[in-house]
Automatic annotation (TrEMBL):
It comes from Popillia japonica (Japanese beetle). InterPro entries: PEX14, Pex14_N, WH-like_DNA-bd_sf. It is found in: Peroxisome membrane. This is Peroxisomal membrane protein PEX14. GO terms for cellular component: peroxisomal importomer complex; peroxisomal membrane. Its main location: membrane.
Length: 258
């Protein structure tokens, strides 16, 4: 019976005319962008509910390219591999993040344990530390003051030694300058005392110029005036030569006083 029914269905499908309008509508439906992503079986069931035959659905799928699209969708491509360097960076960042998180957690736990030990366990085991009395505080203060005084004395001693060194240096410099001045004065004195080494000015009388005999009778008055002028010149030269000797004597006396 079933074979007869299937044969009858095939004959009916062969005898049914192909409706081109429905096929074109189905092609537009299959090519719609909102329907392309749906599975092919679901689209075929929808077309069957709309009254299309299997032959018409097959033709519409062939024209719309639904079979090729279904094959492409069925062949799922593997995701692209992640680059090796990027994998290392991501894993390294995750490791660092996890390490920092663990360190922070460990530090918080240790701090909590230390606080608990300091506040509760340590006083119970060792007791509270004794506070210093007033006498002990005063004694400590006196020790610090004594140490400060000792340091101050040492500083003053150092300053005094430096001042003594500076004064000694200045005294030695002044003594050296005085010695230099004394040596200079002695050299000048020696130079002034050794004036006798230079040649002295001759004290020979100046011979007056003679006048010819033939002029004596004519100009006796002129000769007398010339003689008087020569005598005055000699007197002036003698006074000028005695002045440097007197200056030298005065300088010698001044040096002897020094």
């Amino acid at each position: 019976m079933t074979s007869l029914q299937s044969d009858s269905n095939l004959e009916n499908t062969r005898l049914e005319p192909i409706r081109e309008e429905l096929i074109q509508t189905a092609v537009k439906f299959l090519q719609n962008q909102s329907v392309v992503g749906t599975p092919l079986a679901q689209k075929q069931k929808f077309l069957q509910r709309k009254g299309l035959s299997d032959k018409e659905i097959q033709i519409a799928c062939e024209r719309a390219g639904a079979y090729s699209l279904h094959e492409n969708q069925s062949l799922t491509l593997p995701p692209p591999p992640v680059p090796y360097g990027q994998q290392i960076q991501i894993s390294l960042f995750d490791k660092i993040k996890e390490l920092v998180h663990n360190v922070a957690l460990f530090s918080a736990v240790i701090y909590a344990l230390y606080t608990f030990y300091r506040k509760f366990i340590k006083p119970y085991l060792f007791g509270d530390p004794k506070k210093k009395t007033v006498e002990e505080a005063v004694e400590d203060l006196s020790k610090t003051v004594d140490s400060c005084v000792v340091e101050l004395k040492e500083g003053l001693a150092n300053v005094k030694s430096e001042v003594d060194k500076i004064s000694q240096i200045s005294e030695s410099n002044t003594q050296r300058q005085l010695q230099n001045m004394q040596s200079d004065v002695s050299t000048i004195k020696g130079l002034l005392l050794s004036r006798k080494q230079f040649p002295s000015v001759s004290n020979s009388p100046v011979v007056p110029p003679s006048i010819p005999a033939w002029q004596l009778a004519s100009v006796p008055q002129d000769v007398e005036q010339d003689r008087k002028s020569e005598e005055l010149i000699e007197i002036g030269s003698g006074s000028t030569s005695s002045e440097p000797e007197q200056g030298a004597k005065n300088s010698d006396s001044s040096l002897e006083i020094m």
